[in-house]
Design brief:
By secondary structure, the protein is an alpha/beta fold. The chain folds into two domains: 124 residues, Alpha-Beta Complex (Aspartate Aminotransferase, domain 1), CATH 3.90.1150.10; 239 residues, Aspartate Aminotransferase, domain 2, CATH 3.40.640.10. The protein is 42% helix and 15% strand. It is built from 15 helices and 13 strands. Strands 2-8-7-6-5-3-4 form a seven-stranded mixed β-sheet, sandwiched between helices. It has a four-stranded antiparallel β-sheet with strand order 9-10-13-12. It has a two-stranded parallel ribbon with strand order 1-11. Helix 13 runs parallel beside helix 15. The model has no long low-confidence stretch (mean pLDDT 97).
């Protein structure tokens, strides 16, 4: 009889809610993808390279021009001058980079600290590597990390801590005290870090993104994961990258070459051009999304929902405890079926379901879509 390697894994909540949104013709604020299109220059350059015949394998680690532009972006944003040839690998989306980083670090019996609510790809990748996820739960309304609780779960089997900042789904960002606490644990217990920074260019109210790349001690033990899909409104291209110290990148590339080998060649050239010719896109991203966060928040101000702070990402959390006594999964089903708005329940991001009555909305949508959704939610 066939035995599954992931027996407890089913269809993701994002696929479920999108399917329900389509079935009920609801406004879909569940799955985290932009409703608007990629930049014109990016599309134009992609078309150019396809027509020019740049359609064969790229080098496994990425084309040199894109690696160089990534290194230039890191130098500009984080004041870290990396070696693009040895330290940057282009991947088929950030999820591939996360998977490969986990496989590179985690061995049979290793433990990996994960903060819940967590992106749903972490645990399956850890289990496939033979490791075990150790979950530290964060809760509404502040989702603040209790670093003493983290220290308490570390054992002689702990190998890795996975962090995510800006954090999906809570919208929280790491502060200086978080970086310092993480560094202390890494040094004390000889740990490694996988830093999921796919929303790195989307922070609000003047707050800076504190990347693992900004701290030399932390970066020396880190894989840093980024997403072109989030930055350039092109999630369907599945383009991302990983940055790491050279000795760690050697191990990363050993596995990457047997997962995808290389990533979509014309897109690599187009992305390199975009980074070189329109650097302002990255710089303006926070303002662009802050306007959408503020529009949705203000439109919901008179509703019965409590709006939780969003410091980054393109997600907004709502506490619905004054609206319904249903648990969050039941409430999201009711919301899409009866009210016509699709959201995501927070409990599915936890290993042990949270009792917080909180749902997640994606505001990477056109303004009219956000206004229509808010109008419905204000009537509940």
């Amino acid at each position: 009889m066939f035995e599954s390697k992931l027996p407890n894994l089913g269809t993701s909540i994002f696929s479920q809610m999108t399917a329900l949104a389509n079935q009920y013709q609801a406004i879909n604020l569940s799955q985290g993808f932009p409703e608007f299109d990629a930049p014109e220059l990016l599309k134009k350059q992609l078309n150019h390279y396809v027509l020019e015949g740049v359609n064969q394998y790229a080098p496994s680690s990425g084309i040199a021009k894109l690696q160089q532009q990534i290194a230039a972006l890191i130098a500009r944003k984080y004041h870290n001058n990396i070696n693009y040839e040895q330290q940057v690998t282009v991947t088929s989306g950030a999820t591939e980079a996360l998977f490969v980083a986990i496989q590179a670090l985690v061995k049979e019996g290793d433990e990996v600290v994960v903060f819940d609510p967590a992106y749903d790809s972490y645990q399956p990748a850890i289990e496939l590597a033979g490791g075990r996820s150790v979950h530290v739960a964060l809760h509404a309304p502040d989702y603040k990390i209790d670093w003493q609780a983290v220290a308490d779960v570390i054992t002689d089997k702990t190998r890795v801590i996975i962090i995510n900042t800006p954090h999906n789904p809570s919208g929280k960002i790491f502060k200086t005290e978080d970086i310092n606490a993480l560094k202390a644990l890494v040094a004390e217990h000889d740990l490694y870090v996988i830093s999921d920074e796919v929303y790195e260019h989307i922070t609000f109210d003047g707050a800076l993104h504190l990347s693992a790349l900004t701290d030399s001690e932390l970066f020396a033990r880190s894989f840093v994961i980024s997403s072109f899909g989030k930055t350039f409104h092109s999630t369907g291209w599945k383009m991302g990258y990983c940055v790491a110290p050279a000795q760690l990148m050697v191990e990363f590339r050993k596995i990457h070459q047997y997962v995808t080998f290389s990533s979509f060649t014309p897109a690599q050239h187009a992305l390199a051009d975009m980074l070189e010719l329109e650097p302002e896109h990255v710089d303006e991203l926070s303002h662009f999304y802050q306007q959408k966060r503020d529009l949705l928040s203000e439109a919901l101000a008179q509703s019965r929902f409590k709006i939780l702070p969003s410091e980054g990402t393109y997600f907004l959390l709502l506490d619905y405890s004054d609206v319904s006594d249903l648990d969050d999964v039941e409430f999201c089903h009711w919301l899409v079926e009866q009210a016509g708005v699709a959201a995501v329940p927070l409990s599915v991001f936890y290993n042990s379901a949270s009792s917080d009555k909180v749902i997640r909305l994606c505001f990477a949508k056109n303004d009219d879509t956000l206004k229509r959704a808010a109008e419905i939610l204000c009537q509940l």
